[in-house]
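Side project, low priority. Logging it here so it doesn't get lost.
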Amino acid sequence: WHGRGLALFDLEKYEEAVCNYDSALTYRPDYHWAWYKRGAALLVLGRFEIAVASCDSALKYNPDFTQALNLRKNILKRIEGDN
């Protein structure tokens, strides 16, 4: 499911990618990469708050996951810029 999500993300089919990441997470809820990529897709879709929550989940399972930390910071900057 994660691999399908990656392929769909690359095809810019972000909603479908999120659905596949969700499927991956039903089998392995601690898979930080799926949480991270889910957050990235949600960012592109403009669903910032849920994207931050996905990053938080990635960091819950891997607190040193630099990519998730950076994505979270970028999302928060976008949120601040919209206000």
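Brief comment: The helical segments are 2-10, 14-27, 32-44, 48-61, 66-82.
Revisit when time allows.
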